Amino acid sequence: MYPVTTIHHVGDYVGQTVTLRGWLYNKRSSGKIQFLQLRDGTGVIQCVAVKNEVGEEIFEKCSKLTQESSLIVHGVVRQDERAAGGYEITVLDVEPVGESVDYPITLKEHGVDFLLDHRHLWIRTPRQRAILKVRAEIMRAMADFLDSREFTRVDPPILTPSSAEGTTELFHIKYFDEDAYLTQSGQMYMEAAAMALGKVYSMGPTFRAEKSKTRRHLIEFWMIEPEMAFYTHEDNVKLQEEFISYVVQHVLSHCESELKTIGRDISKLESVKPPFPRLTYDDAIAWLQKQGHDIQWGDDFGAPHETELAEQFDRPVFIEKYPTNIKAFYMQPDPNRPEVVLCADLLAPEGYGEIIGGSERIHDYDLLKQRFEEHNLPEESYGWYLELRKYGSVPHSGFGIGLERTVAWICGLEHVREANPFPRMLYRLYP
Ligand code: 4AD
Ligand code: MG
What we know:
Elements: E1 17-29, E2 33-39, E3 44-50, H1 51-54, H2 56-64, E4 70-79, E5 87-98, H3 112-117, H4 119-122, H5 126-148, E6 152-153, E7 159-160, E8 172-175, E9 178-182, H6 187-197, E10 199-207, E11 220-229, H7 233-254, H8 256-262, H9 267-270, E12 278-280, H10 281-290, H11 303-311, E13 317-320, E14 333-334, E15 337-341, E16 343-348, E17 353-361, H12 365-374, H13 379-387, E18 396-402, H14 403-411
Parallel strand pairs: 3-5, 6-10, 12-13
Antiparallel strand pairs: 1-2, 1-4, 2-3, 4-5, 7-9, 8-9, 10-11, 11-18, 13-16, 14-15, 16-17, 17-18
Helix pairs in contact: 5-7, 5-8, 5-14
Magnesium ion (MG) binds near residues 345, 354 and 357.
Protein backbone atom coordinates (compact mmCIF):
# COMPACT_ATOMS: atom_id res chain seq x y z
CA MET A 1 0.00 0.00 0.00
CA TYR A 2 1.39 3.34 -1.10
CA PRO A 3 0.09 6.77 -0.16
CA VAL A 4 -2.85 7.77 -2.38
CA THR A 5 -2.48 11.30 -3.69
CA THR A 6 -3.52 13.53 -6.57
CA ILE A 7 -1.51 14.91 -9.47
CA HIS A 8 -1.73 18.37 -7.91
CA HIS A 9 0.15 17.14 -4.85
CA VAL A 10 2.77 14.79 -6.34
CA GLY A 11 5.45 17.40 -5.68
CA ASP A 12 5.23 16.47 -2.00
CA TYR A 13 6.33 12.90 -2.80
CA VAL A 14 9.46 13.24 -4.95
CA GLY A 15 11.41 9.97 -4.89
CA GLN A 16 8.56 8.11 -3.21
CA THR A 17 6.10 5.59 -4.55
CA VAL A 18 2.51 6.84 -4.70
CA THR A 19 -0.87 5.73 -5.97
CA LEU A 20 -2.75 7.94 -8.42
CA ARG A 21 -6.31 7.35 -9.61
CA GLY A 22 -7.74 8.74 -12.78
CA TRP A 23 -8.37 8.37 -16.48
CA LEU A 24 -6.13 7.86 -19.46
CA TYR A 25 -6.09 11.15 -21.31
CA ASN A 26 -3.67 10.07 -24.04
CA LYS A 27 -1.02 7.48 -24.75
CA ARG A 28 2.12 7.18 -26.82
CA SER A 29 4.36 4.21 -27.15
CA SER A 30 7.73 3.49 -28.64
CA GLY A 31 7.88 -0.30 -28.64
CA LYS A 32 9.61 -0.75 -25.32
CA ILE A 33 8.18 2.27 -23.50
CA GLN A 34 4.59 3.38 -22.89
CA PHE A 35 3.91 7.03 -22.10
CA LEU A 36 0.56 7.22 -20.33
CA GLN A 37 -0.97 10.66 -19.88
CA LEU A 38 -3.01 10.31 -16.72
CA ARG A 39 -5.56 12.93 -15.69
CA ASP A 40 -7.38 12.98 -12.38
CA GLY A 41 -9.27 16.28 -12.33
CA THR A 42 -6.42 18.08 -10.59
CA GLY A 43 -4.02 17.89 -13.52
CA VAL A 44 -2.35 15.72 -16.13
CA ILE A 45 0.87 13.80 -15.56
CA GLN A 46 2.99 11.53 -17.73
CA CYS A 47 3.44 8.02 -16.39
CA VAL A 48 6.25 6.10 -18.03
CA ALA A 49 6.21 2.30 -18.19
CA VAL A 50 9.45 0.70 -19.37
CA LYS A 51 9.08 -2.90 -20.54
CA ASN A 52 12.43 -4.02 -19.15
CA GLU A 53 11.59 -2.63 -15.72
CA VAL A 54 7.90 -3.53 -15.25
CA GLY A 55 8.01 -6.85 -17.00
CA GLU A 56 5.93 -8.33 -19.81
CA GLU A 57 2.61 -8.65 -17.95
CA ILE A 58 2.37 -5.11 -16.60
CA PHE A 59 3.63 -3.68 -19.86
CA GLU A 60 0.86 -5.59 -21.65
CA LYS A 61 -1.77 -4.12 -19.28
CA CYS A 62 -0.47 -0.65 -20.10
CA SER A 63 -0.57 -1.22 -23.82
CA LYS A 64 -4.22 -2.36 -23.64
CA LEU A 65 -5.40 0.83 -21.93
CA THR A 66 -7.57 2.99 -24.18
CA GLN A 67 -8.39 6.69 -24.19
CA GLU A 68 -10.55 7.68 -21.18
CA SER A 69 -10.45 4.25 -19.57
CA SER A 70 -10.07 4.63 -15.81
CA LEU A 71 -7.11 3.25 -13.94
CA ILE A 72 -5.02 3.23 -10.81
CA VAL A 73 -1.29 3.79 -11.19
CA HIS A 74 1.38 2.92 -8.67
CA GLY A 75 4.70 4.57 -9.38
CA VAL A 76 7.64 6.65 -8.27
CA VAL A 77 7.46 10.44 -8.46
CA ARG A 78 10.36 11.98 -10.38
CA GLN A 79 11.12 15.64 -10.69
CA ASP A 80 11.59 16.50 -14.36
CA GLU A 81 12.08 20.01 -15.70
CA ARG A 82 10.92 18.94 -19.16
CA ALA A 83 7.58 17.53 -17.91
CA ALA A 84 4.51 19.77 -18.26
CA GLY A 85 3.81 20.02 -14.53
CA GLY A 86 7.43 19.52 -13.48
CA TYR A 87 6.95 15.87 -12.47
CA GLU A 88 6.72 12.44 -14.04
CA ILE A 89 5.78 8.99 -12.72
CA THR A 90 7.86 5.91 -13.26
CA VAL A 91 5.26 3.15 -13.40
CA LEU A 92 5.57 0.12 -11.10
CA ASP A 93 2.11 -1.26 -11.74
CA VAL A 94 -1.31 -0.31 -13.12
CA GLU A 95 -4.82 -1.50 -12.26
CA PRO A 96 -7.41 -0.95 -14.98
CA VAL A 97 -10.77 0.08 -13.43
CA GLY A 98 -13.35 0.87 -16.13
CA GLU A 99 -12.88 0.26 -19.81
CA SER A 100 -13.59 2.86 -22.48
CA VAL A 101 -14.39 1.66 -25.97
CA ASP A 102 -14.53 3.97 -29.00
CA TYR A 103 -14.36 7.19 -27.02
CA PRO A 104 -16.10 9.73 -29.26
CA ILE A 105 -13.94 12.77 -28.53
CA THR A 106 -10.58 12.13 -30.08
CA LEU A 107 -7.72 14.55 -29.70
CA LYS A 108 -8.27 15.98 -33.16
CA GLU A 109 -10.47 19.03 -33.79
CA HIS A 110 -14.23 18.57 -33.50
CA GLY A 111 -17.04 20.90 -34.54
CA VAL A 112 -18.74 22.77 -31.75
CA ASP A 113 -22.13 21.10 -32.28
CA PHE A 114 -20.52 17.70 -31.90
CA LEU A 115 -18.77 18.86 -28.76
CA LEU A 116 -21.98 20.32 -27.32
CA ASP A 117 -23.78 17.03 -28.02
CA HIS A 118 -21.01 15.40 -25.99
CA ARG A 119 -20.75 18.08 -23.33
CA HIS A 120 -20.84 15.37 -20.64
CA LEU A 121 -17.50 14.14 -22.02
CA TRP A 122 -16.18 17.42 -23.42
CA ILE A 123 -15.77 18.76 -19.88
CA ARG A 124 -13.01 16.17 -19.33
CA THR A 125 -10.63 17.98 -21.68
CA PRO A 126 -7.95 20.19 -20.09
CA ARG A 127 -9.31 23.44 -21.48
CA GLN A 128 -12.88 22.82 -20.31
CA ARG A 129 -11.63 21.64 -16.95
CA ALA A 130 -9.60 24.84 -16.60
CA ILE A 131 -12.64 26.98 -17.43
CA LEU A 132 -14.76 25.19 -14.82
CA LYS A 133 -11.98 25.70 -12.27
CA VAL A 134 -11.83 29.42 -13.03
CA ARG A 135 -15.62 29.63 -12.84
CA ALA A 136 -15.54 28.05 -9.37
CA GLU A 137 -12.74 30.38 -8.30
CA ILE A 138 -14.69 33.41 -9.54
CA MET A 139 -17.70 32.35 -7.48
CA ARG A 140 -15.49 31.86 -4.46
CA ALA A 141 -13.92 35.29 -4.91
CA MET A 142 -17.32 36.93 -5.29
CA ALA A 143 -18.62 35.29 -2.12
CA ASP A 144 -15.39 36.06 -0.22
CA PHE A 145 -15.52 39.71 -1.19
CA LEU A 146 -19.15 40.16 -0.19
CA ASP A 147 -18.89 38.02 2.97
CA SER A 148 -15.85 39.99 4.13
CA ARG A 149 -17.92 43.15 3.78
CA GLU A 150 -20.62 41.69 5.99
CA PHE A 151 -23.16 40.89 3.32
CA THR A 152 -25.50 38.00 4.08
CA ARG A 153 -26.26 35.46 1.40
CA VAL A 154 -29.98 35.06 0.89
CA ASP A 155 -31.54 32.67 -1.61
CA PRO A 156 -34.48 34.01 -3.60
CA PRO A 157 -37.07 31.58 -5.01
CA ILE A 158 -36.71 30.03 -8.46
CA LEU A 159 -40.49 29.68 -8.90
CA THR A 160 -42.19 33.05 -8.93
CA PRO A 161 -45.68 34.40 -9.54
CA SER A 162 -44.42 37.36 -11.61
CA SER A 163 -41.42 38.83 -13.33
CA ALA A 164 -38.82 41.37 -12.34
CA GLU A 165 -37.49 42.51 -15.69
CA GLY A 166 -40.49 42.41 -18.04
CA THR A 167 -43.04 39.87 -19.13
CA THR A 168 -41.89 38.79 -22.57
CA GLU A 169 -39.01 36.48 -21.72
CA LEU A 170 -40.56 34.32 -19.03
CA PHE A 171 -40.68 30.56 -18.83
CA HIS A 172 -44.21 29.68 -17.96
CA ILE A 173 -44.99 26.61 -15.88
CA LYS A 174 -48.03 25.22 -14.10
CA TYR A 175 -47.96 25.54 -10.33
CA PHE A 176 -50.87 23.24 -9.46
CA ASP A 177 -53.85 25.42 -10.37
CA GLU A 178 -51.85 28.61 -10.66
CA ASP A 179 -49.47 30.07 -13.20
CA ALA A 180 -45.84 30.37 -12.24
CA TYR A 181 -42.65 31.47 -13.94
CA LEU A 182 -38.99 30.59 -13.60
CA THR A 183 -37.16 33.52 -12.07
CA GLN A 184 -35.49 36.06 -14.36
CA SER A 185 -33.82 37.84 -11.47
CA GLY A 186 -33.97 37.57 -7.71
CA GLN A 187 -33.80 41.33 -7.33
CA MET A 188 -37.24 42.04 -5.93
CA TYR A 189 -36.77 39.41 -3.24
CA MET A 190 -33.32 40.76 -2.50
CA GLU A 191 -34.84 44.20 -1.97
CA ALA A 192 -37.13 42.66 0.64
CA ALA A 193 -34.13 40.88 2.17
CA ALA A 194 -32.06 44.10 2.25
CA MET A 195 -34.78 45.68 4.40
CA ALA A 196 -34.39 42.74 6.78
CA LEU A 197 -30.60 42.29 6.78
CA GLY A 198 -29.06 45.49 5.39
CA LYS A 199 -26.60 44.13 2.85
CA VAL A 200 -27.45 40.89 1.04
CA TYR A 201 -26.60 38.94 -2.07
CA SER A 202 -27.91 36.01 -3.99
CA MET A 203 -26.09 33.58 -6.23
CA GLY A 204 -28.10 31.24 -8.37
CA PRO A 205 -29.62 30.33 -11.70
CA THR A 206 -31.93 32.66 -13.60
CA PHE A 207 -33.90 31.97 -16.76
CA ARG A 208 -34.73 33.99 -19.84
CA ALA A 209 -36.79 32.66 -22.70
CA GLU A 210 -34.94 34.99 -25.06
CA LYS A 211 -34.90 34.05 -28.71
CA SER A 212 -31.36 35.42 -28.89
CA LYS A 213 -28.70 33.31 -30.46
CA THR A 214 -25.60 35.33 -29.73
CA ARG A 215 -22.28 34.60 -28.12
CA ARG A 216 -23.45 36.49 -25.01
CA HIS A 217 -26.81 34.82 -24.38
CA LEU A 218 -27.79 31.71 -22.50
CA ILE A 219 -31.32 30.62 -21.63
CA GLU A 220 -30.24 29.60 -18.13
CA PHE A 221 -27.44 31.57 -16.55
CA TRP A 222 -26.21 32.32 -13.07
CA MET A 223 -26.49 35.74 -11.56
CA ILE A 224 -25.02 37.23 -8.42
CA GLU A 225 -27.27 39.97 -7.09
CA PRO A 226 -26.13 42.20 -4.24
CA GLU A 227 -28.67 44.62 -2.76
CA MET A 228 -27.82 47.25 -0.17
CA ALA A 229 -30.08 49.34 2.06
CA PHE A 230 -29.11 53.03 2.27
CA TYR A 231 -26.75 52.76 -0.73
CA THR A 232 -26.95 55.52 -3.33
CA HIS A 233 -26.15 55.13 -7.02
CA GLU A 234 -22.64 56.46 -6.26
CA ASP A 235 -22.11 53.92 -3.46
CA ASN A 236 -23.36 51.19 -5.79
CA VAL A 237 -20.92 52.04 -8.60
CA LYS A 238 -18.01 52.24 -6.20
CA LEU A 239 -18.81 48.84 -4.73
CA GLN A 240 -19.01 47.32 -8.21
CA GLU A 241 -15.59 48.51 -9.31
CA GLU A 242 -14.00 47.22 -6.11
CA PHE A 243 -15.88 43.94 -6.48
CA ILE A 244 -14.83 43.35 -10.10
CA SER A 245 -11.23 44.35 -9.42
CA TYR A 246 -11.03 41.99 -6.47
CA VAL A 247 -12.42 39.10 -8.48
CA VAL A 248 -10.06 39.64 -11.43
CA GLN A 249 -6.98 40.02 -9.22
CA HIS A 250 -7.99 36.94 -7.23
CA VAL A 251 -8.25 34.86 -10.40
CA LEU A 252 -4.89 36.17 -11.61
CA SER A 253 -3.24 35.07 -8.40
CA HIS A 254 -5.08 31.75 -7.95
CA CYS A 255 -5.60 30.41 -11.47
CA GLU A 256 -2.27 30.95 -13.17
CA SER A 257 -2.01 27.46 -14.63
CA GLU A 258 -5.67 27.37 -15.70
CA LEU A 259 -5.36 30.71 -17.52
CA LYS A 260 -2.27 29.34 -19.22
CA THR A 261 -4.10 26.19 -20.32
CA ILE A 262 -6.90 28.35 -21.71
CA GLY A 263 -4.36 30.56 -23.46
CA ARG A 264 -5.55 33.80 -21.89
CA ASP A 265 -3.47 36.92 -22.45
CA ILE A 266 -3.33 37.99 -18.81
CA SER A 267 -1.74 41.38 -19.53
CA LYS A 268 -5.28 42.40 -20.54
CA LEU A 269 -6.51 41.65 -17.01
CA GLU A 270 -3.71 43.17 -14.99
CA SER A 271 -5.01 46.72 -15.52
CA VAL A 272 -8.41 45.90 -14.02
CA LYS A 273 -8.19 48.11 -10.96
CA PRO A 274 -10.31 50.98 -9.63
CA PRO A 275 -11.28 53.57 -10.64
CA PHE A 276 -13.14 52.44 -13.76
CA PRO A 277 -13.96 55.02 -16.41
CA ARG A 278 -17.52 56.35 -16.41
CA LEU A 279 -19.51 57.72 -19.32
CA THR A 280 -23.03 59.03 -19.16
CA TYR A 281 -25.50 57.60 -21.63
CA ASP A 282 -25.61 61.09 -23.22
CA ASP A 283 -21.82 61.11 -23.74
CA ALA A 284 -21.91 57.56 -25.08
CA ILE A 285 -24.59 58.45 -27.66
CA ALA A 286 -22.68 61.59 -28.70
CA TRP A 287 -19.45 59.61 -29.03
CA LEU A 288 -21.12 56.87 -31.10
CA GLN A 289 -22.68 59.48 -33.38
CA LYS A 290 -19.25 61.03 -33.89
CA GLN A 291 -17.98 57.60 -34.93
CA GLY A 292 -20.66 57.58 -37.61
CA HIS A 293 -23.28 55.33 -35.96
CA ASP A 294 -26.91 55.90 -36.79
CA ILE A 295 -28.12 56.05 -33.20
CA GLN A 296 -30.38 58.59 -31.48
CA TRP A 297 -30.91 59.64 -27.89
CA GLY A 298 -33.50 57.20 -26.56
CA ASP A 299 -32.19 54.16 -28.44
CA ASP A 300 -30.73 51.21 -26.58
CA PHE A 301 -27.23 50.04 -27.44
CA GLY A 302 -26.65 46.97 -29.56
CA ALA A 303 -23.70 44.63 -29.19
CA PRO A 304 -21.53 46.51 -31.76
CA HIS A 305 -22.13 49.80 -29.90
CA GLU A 306 -21.15 48.24 -26.58
CA THR A 307 -18.05 46.70 -28.11
CA GLU A 308 -16.86 49.98 -29.61
CA LEU A 309 -17.57 51.97 -26.48
CA ALA A 310 -15.62 49.52 -24.34
CA GLU A 311 -12.72 49.20 -26.78
CA GLN A 312 -11.51 52.67 -25.82
CA PHE A 313 -10.52 51.49 -22.36
CA ASP A 314 -8.16 48.96 -20.75
CA ARG A 315 -10.66 48.09 -18.00
CA PRO A 316 -14.45 47.87 -17.73
CA VAL A 317 -16.43 51.07 -18.31
CA PHE A 318 -19.66 52.22 -16.64
CA ILE A 319 -22.36 53.72 -18.82
CA GLU A 320 -24.73 55.51 -16.48
CA LYS A 321 -28.01 57.37 -16.43
CA TYR A 322 -29.94 55.80 -19.29
CA PRO A 323 -33.28 57.17 -20.48
CA THR A 324 -36.07 56.19 -18.10
CA ASN A 325 -38.18 54.55 -20.78
CA ILE A 326 -35.56 52.04 -21.97
CA LYS A 327 -34.82 50.78 -18.46
CA ALA A 328 -36.72 48.73 -15.89
CA PHE A 329 -39.73 50.27 -14.14
CA TYR A 330 -38.17 50.14 -10.66
CA MET A 331 -35.19 52.44 -11.31
CA GLN A 332 -34.93 55.71 -9.39
CA PRO A 333 -35.17 58.81 -11.59
CA ASP A 334 -32.31 61.31 -11.42
CA PRO A 335 -33.73 64.11 -9.22
CA ASN A 336 -32.17 66.74 -11.50
CA ARG A 337 -33.30 65.09 -14.74
CA PRO A 338 -36.29 62.78 -14.40
CA GLU A 339 -35.94 61.67 -18.04
CA VAL A 340 -32.94 59.57 -16.98
CA VAL A 341 -32.53 57.02 -14.19
CA LEU A 342 -29.79 56.46 -11.60
CA CYS A 343 -28.47 53.29 -13.15
CA ALA A 344 -25.26 51.95 -14.61
CA ASP A 345 -24.36 49.11 -16.91
CA LEU A 346 -20.81 47.86 -16.72
CA LEU A 347 -19.30 46.94 -20.09
CA ALA A 348 -16.35 44.57 -20.10
CA PRO A 349 -13.41 45.22 -22.44
CA GLU A 350 -12.49 43.16 -25.50
CA GLY A 351 -16.02 42.94 -26.86
CA TYR A 352 -17.63 41.04 -23.97
CA GLY A 353 -20.40 43.59 -23.55
CA GLU A 354 -22.56 44.20 -20.52
CA ILE A 355 -21.60 42.12 -17.51
CA ILE A 356 -23.46 44.12 -14.84
CA GLY A 357 -26.79 45.89 -14.75
CA GLY A 358 -27.59 47.87 -11.63
CA SER A 359 -29.40 50.88 -10.25
CA GLU A 360 -30.75 52.80 -7.34
CA ARG A 361 -34.34 51.62 -6.78
CA ILE A 362 -37.47 53.70 -6.41
CA HIS A 363 -38.20 53.88 -2.71
CA ASP A 364 -41.17 56.24 -2.82
CA TYR A 365 -44.53 54.47 -2.54
CA ASP A 366 -46.51 56.84 -4.77
CA LEU A 367 -43.93 56.93 -7.55
CA LEU A 368 -43.61 53.13 -7.62
CA LYS A 369 -47.40 52.75 -7.64
CA GLN A 370 -47.54 55.16 -10.58
CA ARG A 371 -44.94 53.06 -12.44
CA PHE A 372 -47.02 49.94 -11.84
CA GLU A 373 -49.97 51.64 -13.49
CA GLU A 374 -47.86 52.91 -16.41
CA HIS A 375 -46.49 49.42 -17.02
CA ASN A 376 -49.79 47.60 -16.41
CA LEU A 377 -48.25 45.51 -13.66
CA PRO A 378 -50.98 43.75 -11.67
CA GLU A 379 -51.06 44.61 -7.99
CA GLU A 380 -52.09 41.08 -7.05
CA SER A 381 -48.64 39.77 -8.04
CA TYR A 382 -46.59 42.84 -7.11
CA GLY A 383 -48.45 44.05 -4.03
CA TRP A 384 -45.79 42.72 -1.69
CA TYR A 385 -43.06 44.61 -3.54
CA LEU A 386 -45.01 47.86 -3.32
CA GLU A 387 -45.66 47.18 0.35
CA LEU A 388 -41.90 47.33 1.03
CA ARG A 389 -42.28 51.08 0.35
CA LYS A 390 -45.00 51.35 2.97
CA TYR A 391 -43.12 50.11 6.01
CA GLY A 392 -39.88 51.94 6.64
CA SER A 393 -38.80 52.44 3.05
CA VAL A 394 -35.21 53.61 2.55
CA PRO A 395 -33.11 54.55 -0.48
CA HIS A 396 -31.36 51.42 -1.68
CA SER A 397 -29.40 50.11 -4.63
CA GLY A 398 -28.16 46.90 -6.09
CA PHE A 399 -26.85 45.17 -9.14
CA GLY A 400 -26.80 41.88 -10.97
CA ILE A 401 -23.71 40.37 -12.53
CA GLY A 402 -23.95 37.61 -15.09
CA LEU A 403 -21.57 34.83 -14.08
CA GLU A 404 -21.07 33.26 -17.52
CA ARG A 405 -20.32 36.58 -19.18
CA THR A 406 -17.82 37.33 -16.43
CA VAL A 407 -16.19 33.91 -16.84
CA ALA A 408 -16.13 34.34 -20.64
CA TRP A 409 -14.42 37.71 -20.30
CA ILE A 410 -11.88 36.66 -17.67
CA CYS A 411 -11.02 33.46 -19.58
CA GLY A 412 -11.12 35.19 -22.97
CA LEU A 413 -13.70 32.73 -24.39
CA GLU A 414 -15.33 33.17 -27.75
CA HIS A 415 -18.80 32.26 -26.48
CA VAL A 416 -20.56 32.10 -23.09
CA ARG A 417 -21.53 28.46 -23.75
CA GLU A 418 -18.12 27.27 -22.57
CA ALA A 419 -18.54 29.22 -19.32
CA ASN A 420 -21.38 27.01 -18.09
CA PRO A 421 -20.91 23.29 -17.36
CA PHE A 422 -24.12 22.28 -19.17
CA PRO A 423 -25.27 25.30 -21.15
CA ARG A 424 -28.94 25.74 -21.97
CA MET A 425 -29.22 27.54 -25.27
CA LEU A 426 -31.81 28.30 -27.89
CA TYR A 427 -32.72 24.89 -29.39
CA ARG A 428 -30.33 23.02 -27.08
CA LEU A 429 -31.51 21.17 -23.99
CA TYR A 430 -29.30 18.07 -24.33
CA PRO A 431 -27.35 16.72 -22.51
O1 4AD B 1 -29.26 43.64 -16.87
P1 4AD B 1 -30.06 42.53 -16.28
O2 4AD B 1 -31.26 42.09 -17.02
O3 4AD B 1 -30.42 43.01 -14.82
C1 4AD B 1 -31.25 42.42 -13.93
O4 4AD B 1 -31.79 41.36 -14.08
C2 4AD B 1 -31.35 43.15 -12.63
N1 4AD B 1 -32.62 42.78 -11.97
C3 4AD B 1 -30.16 42.83 -11.77
C4 4AD B 1 -30.17 43.56 -10.46
O5 4AD B 1 -30.10 44.75 -10.44
N2 4AD B 1 -30.25 42.84 -9.36
O6 4AD B 1 -29.12 41.25 -16.07
C5 4AD B 1 -27.96 41.35 -15.28
C6 4AD B 1 -26.79 40.66 -15.94
C7 4AD B 1 -26.39 41.25 -17.29
O7 4AD B 1 -25.58 42.37 -17.13
C8 4AD B 1 -25.64 40.08 -17.90
O8 4AD B 1 -24.33 39.98 -17.40
C9 4AD B 1 -26.42 38.90 -17.40
O9 4AD B 1 -27.12 39.31 -16.25
N3 4AD B 1 -27.36 38.41 -18.40
C10 4AD B 1 -27.16 37.30 -19.15
N4 4AD B 1 -26.14 36.43 -19.20
C11 4AD B 1 -26.24 35.39 -20.07
N5 4AD B 1 -27.30 35.17 -20.85
C12 4AD B 1 -28.36 36.01 -20.82
N6 4AD B 1 -29.42 35.76 -21.58
C13 4AD B 1 -28.32 37.15 -19.95
N7 4AD B 1 -29.17 38.15 -19.65
C14 4AD B 1 -28.57 38.91 -18.72
MG1 MG C 1 -29.10 44.83 -18.50
